[in-house]
Amino acid sequence: MNIENINLKKKFGKNIIFDENLSRYSWFNLGGPAKILFKPQSVEELADFLKLLNNSQKIICLGAGSNTLIRDGGFSGVVIKLSSKFSYIKSLKENILEVGAGTLDKTLSSYAAENSIANLEFLSCIPGSIGGAIRMNSGCYGDEISNILISIKAIDFKGKVTEFDRKDIQFFYRGTNLPENIIILSAKLQANVGDKNLIKEKIKKFSQEKKETQPSKIKTCGSTFKNPKDKKAWELIKNSNCNLVSFGKARISNKHSNFFVNEGGATSEDIEKLINFVRQKVFEKYNIKLDLELKIIGETLRNG
Ligand SMILES: Cc1cc2nc3c(=O)[nH]c(=O)nc-3n(C[C@H](O)[C@H](O)[C@H](O)COP(=O)(O)OP(=O)(O)OC[C@H]3O[C@@H](n4cnc5c(N)ncnc54)[C@H](O)[C@@H]3O)c2cc1C
Question: Residues 71, 135, 174, 251: which is the catalytic one?
Answer without folding.
Answer: 174
